[in-house]
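Newbie here. two chains, one complex. Structure please?
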Amino acid sequence: MTDVHPADNPSENPGERRAAYALISPAWVAFVVLLAGPSLAVVVLSLTDWQLGAPTMNFIGLGNYEQLFADRVFWKSFTNTFVYCLVVVPGSVFLGLGLALLIEGATFGRAFYRAAYFLPVTSTLIAMAVVWEFLLHPSVGLVNIVLEQVGITGGDWLKNPNRALFTLAGIGIWQSAGLNMVLFMAGLKAIPPDLYEAAEIDGASSVWERFRCVTWPMLGPATLFVTVVSGIRSFQVFDTVEVLTKGGPNKATEVLLYTMYTEAFNFFRTGYGAAITVVFLVVVLALTLLQVKAGEKRTHYG
Amino acid sequence: MAAISFENVRKSFGAVEVLKDVSLKIADGEFLTLLGPSGCGKSTLLRIVAGLERNDSGSITIGTRRVDALPARDRDIAMVFQSYALYPHMTVAENIGLPLTMRRMNVWQRLPGLGAFLPGTRAARKSVAQDVAEAAQALDIGPLLQRKPSQLSGGQKQRVALGRAMVRHPAAFLLDEPLSNLDAKLRVQMRAELTELQRRLGATMIYVTHDQSEAMTMSDRVAVMLAGKLQQVAPPRQLYDDPETLQVAEFVGSPKINVLPVDGGFHAVRPEAMEVVVPGAPDCIAGRIRLVEHLGSESLVHVEVPGMDLPLIARLEAMSARDPKRGEAVGLRPLPGRVLKFDATGRRIRD
């Protein structure tokens, strides 16, 4: 716009300005009530010693945080959450990609496989966790029975402190691979067929070269999105921990959200729980920004 | 460079027969255009030569080799796509160099990082870079080599796509509507450049288009294709002046040729072979002027004739003495010797 007529500029016309504010107000109200307000409340609470239901509260500054960072259980929980993510994110991203490529390449039964692998996403994880508990039962669980048939002693999947976290990670991969697969399939559909044809004529015609020259780079935006979403989702792991291990054995599966939950709702230390939540939010935000920054350099849109 | 020939090529997609027994010989170094409306099978024919589709029957020969059974990469041809099909994550140099990298380096040498330590990698990279620079020079895109396709204009992308085709000196170039994504002005310019390039390289080119002005201006010969059949293969001039069938006469030339039903056949007269005369003159068709289009160097006079669905069109030089007005009653008379005669099936009748 080179010449703006005064009347065209809403900021100079009271009527239009009112209309503009009226139009953006629903979005603003929703943002404040649902996002900004609660986040601010959590930050404020984390600076108090409030306990759920208590009539009084005192501001104790960074007291909760001092206590938190000195707490061995918090650090255990913090590392466990990262280890869980480091297993689940690559696992579910590559499994999702593999499934998407296989199903795209399939000549029959595509709808069936798509639905089958997407099923875990639609099911309630709490209910599925109970099913997993049966499957993983050390003596009568299907997993160990099958393993015994091939001569492997399965052992205890959920009570072995060296193994429990990875068992949960396995369930996490099973649960989220389906969503990643669907997102990758959408990404695959968006690749122009011309590029594969050009690659074929240019000599990049083997399966590996097609993947390296066309599929993988063209999936860049999808991969970035899938990785960020998987990262956030796996950082929020809670359901399986609550149902299957309760953070045990010996804190081996203690994760951030579970620690937060027990502090705030079992021990009613709301202020302390709020501090954990703030740490959780900061980490999620930082991880997301890091992934987007790192990814965007290598990602080609369009 | 090499000659290309098809013999009795057929292709169906399901129940739809897209190519019905196509045979054609293209000489070494010839610029041949496949011209036809969309859906006529011209792109399918090109893709069969490229190896992107398989012919159901018939044979295709490039040079002395029969290539029907060969995969695309072994046919020694290059293709330029309508969408350019550049790899968006690679620089211009990498895009142009890819066909060479694929041929001159093995899987291990191509690996990023590790490849650099293997014997022969450096020499191969150097030779690729040299050839890329040469192609870029020829196409005037040297300064763009380090850019990504998203930073290029349509015309520049077009050149990069040409560079990728040129760089390995293929036996033939296949171009699938390469100019249709460019704006009108650039299209005319690229038309000239492409012809120039073809002459300089002495390349065999098969060029697919639905745009007859591209076909007429660029080609050595034009193959008109309608509904899966080659109608006529001839130099542009001959195609216009001496069409074999009524369909070709109607498809080539703008405005369309005037067709008059004449006892069991058709007479066709190009607009410039139509004379505007006074009504009632001997041997003329009487009508009334419905529209006069002034195009600067010439005017198109649309004349409504009773009993005919479409108006007849006459082309007048702008300098001509007549200044026809809308609504004026006039007569139209074909110039002697400029009437093309066709039988009821549309086949040409020669005297």
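Moderator note: The mean pLDDT of chain A is 83. Chain A touches chain B at residues 192, 194-195, 197-205, 208-209, 213-214, 217-218, 220, 300, 302 (CB under 8 Å). Thread marked as resolved.
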